[in-house]
Amino acid sequence: MAYKISKDFSFSAAHYLNGLAKDHPCGRLHGHNYTVRVVLKGQLDKVGFVRDYGELDEFKKHLDQVADHRCLNDMMPKNVNPTAENLAFLFYQHIRDYFPVVAVGVSETPKTWAWFEV
Q1: Dist CA 31 CA 36 (whole Å)
Q2: Which of 66, 71, 79, 97 has a CA that sits 20 to 30 A from residue 15's CA?
Q3: What is the pTM of this model?
Q4: Which of these is catalytic: 24, 55, 58, 69?
Q5: Does the active-site annotation cover 71?
C-alpha cells in the first residue's frame, strides 16, 4: 500500500504547433493559462507526509523561470511541439530526480488534461 498526493501549479504562456493543417487554429501563435498537476506516491514519513508540499515550491520556481509568460516553443527540444502531452513529459523529466513522482498532468483549458505516468 502507498499514499498519493498531488499539487497544482499554474503559469501563462504562448505557443504554436508545427505540422498542422494551414487553417488549424493551433498552428498560429496563441496563449493558455496552464495548470500543471504533479502526483507523488509513497509511504508516510514520521510526520505523516508522503512529502511536505512546501518542498514542491522549487518546482514552481522552475516553472516561473522557464515557462511563465514565455513562448514555449523556445524551451522545447528541436523539432518537438509544445503540446500538453510533451510538456507533461518534459516537466516529469525535470522533477523525477527530486520527488517520487508517478504522474504529471498538463491542462491548457478547464476541460482538457494530458498526462505522463510511470
Answers
A1: 15
A2: 97
A3: 0.96
A4: 69
A5: no
